[in-house]
Amino acid sequence: MPAPRIVLLTGAAGGLGSLMQNLLPAFGYELRLLDLRPIDGEPDAIVADLADKDAVREAVRGVDAIIHLAGISLEAPFEKILSANIVGTYNLYEAAREEGIERIVFASSNHAVGFTPRPQGDTPLDPDALIPIDTPRRPDTFYGLSKSFGEDLAQFYWDKHGMETVSVRIGSCFPEPTSVRMLSVWMSPADGARLFHAALTAENVGHTVVYGSSANTRLWWDLTTARSLGYEPQDDSEPYAEKLIAEQGELDPENVAHAYLGGHFVSDPPIWPY
Ligand code: NAI
Ligand code: 15L
After folding, report:
1. In angstroms, rounded to a whole number, what is the distance separating the alpha carbons of residues 61 and 257?
2. For residue 74, which ligand has an atom nearest its CA?
3. Cα(210) to centroid of ligand 1, in Å?
4. Which residues are catalytic?
5. Is the distance from the beta carbon of residue 184 to the nearest atom of ligand 2 less than 6 Å?
6. DSSP string covering 67-78, please?
7. How far apart, in whole angstroms, are the C-alpha atoms of residue 220 and residue 241?
8. What pLDDT, in 10s, does the model give residues 190-206?
9. In Å, how far are 35, 111, 140, 150, 239 from 219, measured between CA atoms?
10. Cα–Cα distance for residue pair 86/80, rounded to 1 Å
11. How far apart are CA 216 and CA 197, in angstroms?
């Protein structure tokens, strides 16, 4: 596959989308932006709902690849998740198939495997204790369930139609880690851009599932499949550890919100406000 140049970035108005709008052009991409919401200072951004098949088809026409971030990013009633994340992601894949788009990078989430018990042990964990990428899916929310569906959809479009996807089970991609759990699952925005670039340019990915995080000292999962794409994380959350642990304490194995990869999503998930 020739290296993609024009990339559709769905969910461009969101937190991660805004970060990637700034970081990805340095890798040589020309971004076409799409979101439900208008984007300040970006009059050319496509304002569309993924539920609108015709708008989605038009949005994907002529791009070389897609980074699919749009959707509900927290817990919500099933009917809302169904429209934005399940039907919306299907509409995007179907439009991409019709328009001959060969590569999608799908923003999956750690919440597709959120009910996986977090590994416990000395830091850093023994490599054998890290959660493997083929651990059974154990969604922690309707939101996580929709990401599990997205991974299956991606596998189906590869097997049936030869469209390639890298599904990135993102941990927490924010400018800084803000919780003790995030020390383990944080992906710096710069590493996020490196990983998306690797996912766009690696050869013969078929459908590859990877965890998305930095090279954290307190890492919980195995980054082997991400590294196999050529991803070389540069960041580590450890410089934030002392302050966060002083403020919040160590993770408590007796606390259900600390016991699983998905953190508080398993017990008290944040709710999508719209
Ligand atoms: P966000 O909630 O800030 O952004 C999502 C964007 O999608 C919003 O701008 C929203 O307007 C747009 N959107 C929602 N429904 C839409 C629809 N039907 N049609 C078009 N656009 C729609 O979320 P964030 O943090 O930027 O995450 C981006 C993606 O990455 C999401 O899919 C999220 O599930 C995933 N992710 C993010 C993580 C993170 O740490 N930021 C962790 C794991 C996954
Ligand atoms: C996610 O999937 C969410 O979209 C994001 O807002 C964070 O909550 C992240 O997971 C996390 O697990 O920290």
Report:
1. 43
2. 2
3. 18
4. 143
5. no
6. EE--S--SB--H
7. 15
8. 999 999 999 999 999 99
9. 32, 16, 20, 24, 14
10. 9
11. 20
